[in-house]
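Subject: sequence -> C-alpha cells, single chain

Hey, anyone have a minute? Need the predicted structure for the following. Not urgent.
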Amino acid sequence: MQAPPNPLRRLCLVLGDQLDCASAIFDAFDPAQDAILMCEAAEEALYIAQHKRRIAFFFSAMRHFAEDQRSEGRFVIYRQLDEEGAPQTLADAMAEAFE
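Reply:
Had a minute. Here:
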C-alpha cells in the first residue's frame, strides 16, 4: 500500500458523479503532496429510492476510478460501504480523513 503524502497539502474530494480524469481538481495535483478522498456513503446511496443495480454500477465505477488513480501514482483514501466502521455520511468520511 502506498503511503500518504507527508505533509498533506490538499485532500481532494471526488464524488461518484465526478469521475473525470480531466477534472480541474487534478490540474495542479501533486502526488507528492496531495491525496484523493472517495467514499461510498450510505446517506448518499439511500436518500432517494434507487434500483440496487444502479447503486452497484455507481459504486463499481467509483472503485474502478479509484484504482485508475492509484495506478497513476496518486494516493487514494477510499471507503467502501460494506467495510466495518464505514462512515455513514460524506461529512463523517471527511472528518475521519482529516484526523
